[in-house]
Amino acid sequence: MDEQSRMLQTLAGVNLAGHSVQGGMALPPPHGHEGADGDGRKQDIGDILHQIMTITDQSLDEAQAKKHALNCHRMKPALFSVLCEIKEKTGLSIRGAQEEDPPDPQLMRLDNMLLAEGVSGPEKGGGSAAAAAAAAASGGSSDNSIEHSDYRAKLTQIRQIYHTELEKYEQACNEFTTHVMNLLREQSRTRPISPKEIERMVGIIHRKFSSIQMQLKQSTCEAVMILRSRFLDAMRKRRNFSKQATEILNEYFYSHLSNPYPSEEAKEELAKKCSITVSQVSNWFGNKRIRYKKNIGKFQEEANLYAAKTAVTAAHAVAAAVQNNQTNSPTTPNSGSSGSFNLPNSGDMFMNMQSLNGDSYQGSQVGANVQSQVDSLRHVINQTGGYSDGLGGNSLYSPHNLNANGGWQDATTPSSVTSPTEGPGSVHSDTSN
DNA sequence: GATGATGATTCGCG
DNA sequence: CGCGAATCATCATC
Asked: Where is there biased composition of kind Polar residues (predicted)?
């Protein structure tokens, strides 16, 4: 017992020495008169100063020697474990309760967002979500791709910065953790520091660093959001369709003037051809119909232009079809009295014309549509012979496609000249079957 | 900057 | 829900 009490005294002294070495500052020895008057405090400070002043190499050596002696003492391990236990049961047990915290929901949200935006996670294809969405909304024409690449470049930049910073933080965290662990291990020889405590300390460090990481993730998210909103704003701006797209839409419109209501399938086909969305096709046709109806005279020229175009393609088609028929079949398919019934796979005239462009037609389709194309050609030829500019004249694409109340002619009243593919009873079933 | 063209949006109707 | 009609917002041209 006597030996033990002596040892505790020594231990306290060595501990003090240890602190003074590491901290560079000696702690005052515990005095009993804390709440005393100023004289007592002055006395304390005087003692400390005296201690500091009297630290010599010799006293340090003495302390080291004491430390060594203590470390080698046979009772040291037992006492050390007792101290550890006491320490464990007091202060640290309070903190222990907060240790196994669940994953932070905010951090999870940030992680998910970064993953969705393609900042974290796999490199390829990431971050194009907004670009793709905007592309779908705005048609994804060629000029958009410039902005897409710009968006992607900026996103890549953010991604790079994020990863660099993250790496830096991780490195710093590891370095600091290693440093602290080494320090604690070193101190554990003189202080009651259990491995569990070191583990806790590491946990605390990691939490600190993860909060820094969260800030990084937060600002990265913000940057991505800003970039994205700017990109979407730029995309939202109205821009005219490409010339080619307008051409395609106009050709369809004027070749179906008697019933310019493309079916869902036709809309999809047109959307694909024009690199725009189906709703844009719908918008275009809606606008076109209303504007055409409002001012037919203005659109006459345009109508004739496309009629001529159709004529040329129809001529090619008919020539090919006739040739095809001569070689394949003595009878003309679809040579019914009206010549305008929709065929199951006829699609619409325009679509077939498109496929015929460049002399790459499909014989069977041409054969099926030959009658309509012949009709179309005949009308166009008649038209080009003598077109009068007058409103309501005898022109090919004259207002008589419209009925009395301003709407497009009823499906039950067949068109006199236009769109031979449309037959009686056909309700804008261009490609429907 | 004025003006017309054009794509998109909104609202009411059937 | 698709359409017509009115309207808005932006583009393109002069």
From this structure: 352-369, 402-421
